Amino acid sequence: MERVKGGSVYILASRSGVLYIGVTSRLDRRIVVHKQKLIDVFSKKYNVSRVVYYELFGDIRDAIRREKKIALIEQDNPTWDDMAEEWFEKRTASADLPQRHAGHKRRASSSRRAGTRSP
Fold it and tell me: Which CATH architecture has domain 7-96?
């Protein structure tokens, strides 16, 4: 039987809003590499070292699946536009709000809340 250990998915940000999404089996060690810019060219080039979100998983394969889902946000909304901006310009009733955005899947409510991105 294959031995699989846990992992983490994480998002780093620069002060200018550049994001980096990664997966690792050793979050603490990987964050040190980013913060000290030891080997990661992307972190050095864009000064990406602020941990803005992370999740821990018992199985690294679950972390990889989660990373791919998070990466879809960048694909669907690469400039991180406020998708609700027009809702408040028109003072629309909640019944008029779109049920879903392309690529968005409705989830059961959860007590977990994802980190937010700083501009």
Answer: 3-Layer(aba) Sandwich (3.40)
